[in-house]
Structure formats: structure tokens, C-alpha cells
Amino acid sequence: MMNERDLLESDLRGQTRVLKRLAQGASLDEVLHTLVEVAEESRPDMIGSVMLMEAESGTLRLAASRRLPDFYCTAVDRRIPGPRCGSCGTAAFTGKRVVVEDIATDPLWHGFRDIPEQALLRACWSEPIIASTGEVLGTFAMYYSVPRSPCASELEFVSSIASLAALAIERVRYQSDVERERAVLKTIVNGIPDALLMTGLDRNITHFSRGACRMFQYDADEVLGKSTSILYADRSDFERMAEERFHIAADERFEATEVRWRRKSGATFVGEMVGKVIRDERDQPLGFLALIRDITDRKRAEACLAESRDKLVQAERLAAMGKMVSAIAHESRNALQRIQVGIDVLEYDIEPDSEAREDLNRIRRAKNDLQHMHDELRSFAGPIQLDKSTASVAEVWRQAWTNLHVLHQGRDVQLIEAIDDADLVCELDVFRIEQVFRNLFENSLAACADPVRITIACSNRNDGEQRMLCVSVRDNGPGLPEELRARVFEAFYTTKAKGTGLGMAIAERFITAHRGTIEISDHPDGAEFLMTLPQ
Amino acid sequence: MKRSLRIVIADDEADIRQGFRRLLCKLGCEVVGEAENGGDLIALCAAELPDLVITDVRMPEMSGIEAAKVIAKAIAIPVIVVSSYERPDDEDCAFIADFLLKPICITELRAAINTACDGAF
């Protein structure tokens, strides 16, 4: 038998063993078994056990015991605590220590004494295991084979063992809560398609989520420890974010900021970022967190929407213009006819080479300009009903070229045909396709200095089952400036000092009406337009 | 030149009628009547039996095309239509010698007359 001092030392060693197991991350089951083990080693005539409250069922479950017989364990497992329910059931119910000196006579064991009797158990002291919140977590019981009452040191022992058990249970439960939370967080972090980055206060990357790896095309190992500046497309944005978001005094902000980012490949994209300061429980800043969403698709969709809206507005404008042009067509043509007849009649009466004849010619030119503008407006905004016939496109462009004779008369101009053996026959509205070529030739003649070389090249291709004629019209001029390239088919946009700015818009309209296409090529020299026409 | 062509013109605008009359005279033609609607045009043609009719389309009471249709059933007179509207697609215009879109100049007018009257100039 150990003396008081030895016992105290043994208890302390035992408690240290339990705490060590706890610190090692042992499971609750292992920790509680160690607890029973050290208790029984310290008091060899005692049989210890730990029962835990199961919240779901409201019953006491036997969690650890080394020397209680199996039949006894089975019998006491899943008991519902009550005011007179043996030692442990009563202690769990009342939350107070229960000391039963003799099971054979104590009223708390009334009705189920035969089982402890069979297990040769006579005394049972039970201490409730109470959490820091006051919740009863379970009980620690000390059994003896003879009737007996505890001395003060034994009461102290049972109390300290119960406290240790409470500590272990709370700690393990906390640990498992933390692990569950961590698992949930990990699932969220890895599951979201957005990029989640964490950095230290120096803005060097400490966490790079799977979404971030996908978005930026880096493996996490490649960026961990590196500055987030490698992810920014523009250095100025990195610096701006330092001022706006990533400094320790930054306010809590939830609105997203659009930033241009750079992938490993060098490609850039627009991403929306939410960023904040990570702080510990004492509000001390630890680092920064950023959530980045790639909004390329959204931007594209917005651009498409804006384009559709613009097209709709354009279509409505066209319809209104079409109505207006139709409405004034009759009266303006009659007015032009009155001028024309007047000019033709006066031409008989006015002497050639006279000043009056020059005046008349000026009136004629003004009338022609007015008529040309009128015809352009009609071509652009009026209804199109194609009058198709089978024709060679070469004949059409040659006619257009011939009709522009006045424009290239006296200049060094040449129309070069590079047809090879292409099939040039199409079903087309000759008048309208001629106008397309006319507009292209007019632009080239206006843009190019002599010698002007306009080259037409043709080829055939199949778009699915549709055979297409591809026609390229290229000149040797200065080419189209970047601004014009983007807007060349836009109505009323012109770089010329004079003109309606409708020529290329009309060309596109006529080609589209033929189910063909017209676009500017990327040819580095001169201007080149590529057309396709179905055959 | 052969005998002067006898022409009837129809347009609801007096300025245009006058202009065409003077112009046709310059071309050596004789304007034997002017109408300002389709009904008058039919009557004039019946009375004058001209060599050629030059008419607008949209006029009060009866259009130039309707009038030309009636005239074509009774007398074989070539009709040149001068309109400020495009040639109608759905109209049977076999009885029309030529369809010109305003504004027309003297060259176009002369060519159309020449075709309609089989080498009048």
C-alpha cells in the first residue's frame, strides 16, 4: 500500500500520461482507456469505468473499462439516466457526485442489484464529468468488491480524474469539430471554381487553391512564397490594390474590383476580385485573402448583348430611315425631274462657253450630287428585292470599272485580274453587285496615289454543301488605318471630306442580301476586301 | 428628219408637263395634248390618235398605267411611263414600251422615244 506522498506522485504521473496521450492526438477512446488504466494502477483494489452521455439517444454509453466483466458492461450500457438509477445514472441525471457504499442495500440500486452482485461489486462511487459549459458529458465510476466509503483523498482523486476526463472529452471534441470544419472549408476552397489566394502581410502567396491553379495555369508549388505581383497583368493594379485593399488598416469591403490578370502563358483576362485582411481572434492582421472570379465569359456575353442592342437600334434606325426615304422619294424625284428638264431645255438656249452655260453646269452637278445622295440613302435604307440572274462576276466588275471611266481618266490606273481557272458564274443581282464593285473601286481610286493598281483575285471553295466564289479586291494604297478597319462598314462613318459614309455599308448590305460575306483582310500592304458569294 | 412625232404627255405636275413639252419641241416633236390625270389621257388619245404617249404613273382619278392599259385595248399607241416610283413587280406591263425612273435626262428620253417609235430620230 502506497503512502499519501507516493500516491500523490503516482496520481500526478498518471495525469501526465493522460495529458501526453491527449497531446499526441490519441483518439478519445484511447485517452479514456489510459485514464482508467492510470486510475486502476494508482488504486489496485478499485475497478474504474467511464461512461459518456450520447446526446442523440439521451443514454449513457460505456466508453472505457478494463476489468468490468462483459455481461456487466452490456447490462449498464445504454441506460437512461434518472433520479434513482444506480450510481452513474443518478450522477449523470443530477450532475452531482453519488457515493453508494453498499450496492446491496442502497435504494439507488433498487431493482437491479443482481447484476453487480453477480459481478461481485459492492461499492460504487460515481463522479459526473462536467464540461466547462456545465453540460454533463458522462461519469467516472470507481467500483469496489467490498462495501466501503471514500476518504477525503479518494474523493479528491475521483474529482480530479473526472476533471481530466472532461478536459480530454472537450479537447477531443473540439479537435474533431476543428477537423470537420477544416474538411468543410477544404471542400469549399477546392470546390469553388474561383481562385482563392492567401498571402502573408508581405503579399507573398501562402495558399493557392485548385481553382487558382486552373485559372492562372500555375501549379501551387510554382507560386507559393512568391509575390502576387506575378499574377497582375499591370504593375499599376498591383500597387493600386496595396492602397485600396491589401494593407493592415483596410476597411471591410465586399464590393468586387475588376482587375486584368495574367496567366502563366502570358495571356491576360479580366477577373473580379474580393479581398480582405485575415485577422486572428485578437484582431491582429495575419495576411490577406483574395477571391478572384474569371469574368471573361460574362464580359463576352455583355459585349454580345451590347452588340445585339446596337444592331437592334441600328435596325430600328434603318427602318425609320427607310420609311422616311420612301416618303420623300416621290416628291424629291419629281423635284429633281423639274430641275433636270429645266437644265435640258436651257442647254438649247444658252450659248456654249458662256458664263450662263457654266452656271447651268454647276446646277447640273449640284443636281447630280443630290441625286447620288438620294440613291445612296435608298440603297442603304430602302427595301431590297434582288433581281437575280445568272452572270459572270468578271462581267459585273468590268462594267463597274467602265462606268468609273471619268474617275480614272488621265490617271495611271490599272485593274489587274488574277482569275486563274476559277468558276465566276453566280446567281446575282447584277445592278447591286456592280454597285458593290463601284464603291470599292471608288474608294481605291480616292485613296491611292498614281500609279494605282487594283488587283482582283478569285477562287472557289465549298462551305459544307454550298459552293462559294471568293473574290479579293486589293489596292496598292496606304491601307486602312486601325480606327477605320473597325468601323469601315458602319453607316455614316467616313474619313473622306465629302460623302455620305454609306458606300461600304451599302456594299455589306447588298452582299449580305445575297447570303455572302464581305470583310477586310489583314493584308499588310494596301487595302484588301474579301467577299464570298454563293454559287 | 421624218414627220414630227405627235406626242401626248400626262403628268399631274404642270411644271413637269411644261418642261417635257418644251424639251420635246426642242427634239423636234409635236406635243398635241397634255393631260393631268388618267381619264383625260384616254380621252386625248381617242381624240388625237398620237404617235406616242409619255405618262406619269400616280395621277388623280386614274393612274398612268391603268390609262395605258385602256388605251392599249383600243389603239396601238406606244406608251412610255416616267415615274418617281420603281417599276411595280406585280403589274402586267407588257403594253408599256418603256419604264423610266425620274429624274430622266434628255439623252435617256431621246433613247426611249427612239426605241418606242422604231427609230424616230
How many DSSP-defined strands of chain A?
Answer: 17
- For this structure, the quaternary state is heterodimer
Shape of chain A: rod-shaped
Q: Which runs of chain B of at least 5 residues are low in confidence (pLDDT < 50)?
A: none
**First-to-last CA distance of chain A:** 113 Å
Radius of gyration of chain A: 47 Å
- Broad shape of chain B: globular
Number of helices of chain A: 16
List the secondary-structure elements of chain B in sequence, H or E.
Answer: EHEHEHEEH
Provide mean pLDDT of chain B, rounded. Answer: 88
Largest beta-sheet characterization of chain A: 5 strands, antiparallel
Structural class of chain A: alpha+beta
Helix content, binned percent of chain A: 40-55%
Query: What percent strand of chain A?
Result: 15-25%
Task: Present the secondary structure layout.
The complex is a heterodimer of chains A (535) and B (121).
Chain A: H1 4-23, H2 28-42, E1 47-54, E2 59-65, H3 70-76, H4 86-94, E3 98-100, H5 114-118, E4 123-130, E5 136-144, H6 152-191, E6 195-200, E7 205-208, H7 210-216, H8 220-223, H9 235-244, E8 257-262, E9 268-279, E10 285-294, H10 296-349, H11 355-381, E11 389-392, H12 393-403, H13 405-408, E12 413-418, E13 425-428, H14 430-447, E14 452-463, E15 466-475, H15 482-487, H16 503-513, E16 517-520, E17 528-534
Parallel strand pairs in A: 12-14
Antiparallel strand pairs in A: 1-2, 1-5, 3-4, 4-5, 6-7, 6-10, 8-9, 9-10, 11-13, 14-15, 15-17, 16-17
Helix pairs in contact in A: 1-2, 1-6, 2-6, 10-11, 12-14, 14-16
Chain B: E1 6-10, H1 14-26, E2 30-35, H2 38-48, E3 52-55, H3 64-74, E4 79-83, E5 98-101, H4 106-116
Parallel strand pairs in B: 1-2, 1-3, 3-4, 4-5
Helix pairs in contact in B: 2-3
